[in-house]
Amino acid sequence: MHAELGNAVSIRFALPSAKLRPYVTTYYHTQVKASPGEPVLEDYLHPEWPNVRFMKAGWSHSAIGDEPLTPSPAFAVSGPTSKATRFRNGTGSGWGIGLMPLGWACIFGVEASTYADRGIDGHSDPAFAAFAPLADALAQSDGDTAQELAVIESHMEAITLTPCPRAKEVAAINAALIDPELSSVAALADRVGMNIRSLERLSKRAFGFTPKLLLRRQRFLRSLSQFMLDPSLSWLRTLDYQYHDQAHFVRDFKRFMGMSPSAYAKLDKPFLVAAARARMAIAGEAVQGLHDPATNGEGGKG
Q: What pTM was estimated for this model as a whole?
């Protein structure tokens, strides 16, 4: 595991075993020790693939997009997102599991678009029953993170290594989406050998959004990730080459983050800057949405 320390935040990432990497991006453990003068830390999470999180109920408060902040359940599931997630955490800790689109398709087998831009109490929806035993095991743990990580990995191996429909097509779409040279839905359909209508149906089912929105989101994340790694950069120096100009980027930024780039740059980022650097060191990408399932354990691609 690799750790990156912030002022009062420790975020540790671990890669899954090689056989789980088509399904899981990373496991991550967040620990907060807030000071009496600042008992709650707030940040904004960028759009990403689905996540499953385990924590003490109420430790975190979160909201996707314009929703009001509400307490997070002990077993929280978030579908794929196209909007920023605002969150506040006090002193405490919790685990998270980032899922690839193929992981969502194979483990849950439900329409990702139904859960897109939504946070769900995992105990209240039978679609997520496969994770309930893991939620219970972590709730009863004595806090040994190495042991907890082993429990998580063992559970993931037990629930993911089964065939699922259209796995090859989902994997092919995912691989194409992380290619920075790909810029159009037509090119994506050609790359994966599907007609556009079939691509749109499978995209919504496994990825949560239309191919057009996914390509737009990927372009935005490539630019945002550069800023997260080096906030001293001007936005002009982070722009993906597919942006026509800065105004084009500003429109996307407001669509995905709900604020202007300048407003975001002024915010404290007690979690996300540390997380981007730690994630980059171990997984080779600063944000989950750009994760390559072929990433090796040394921050490179392989």
A: 0.93
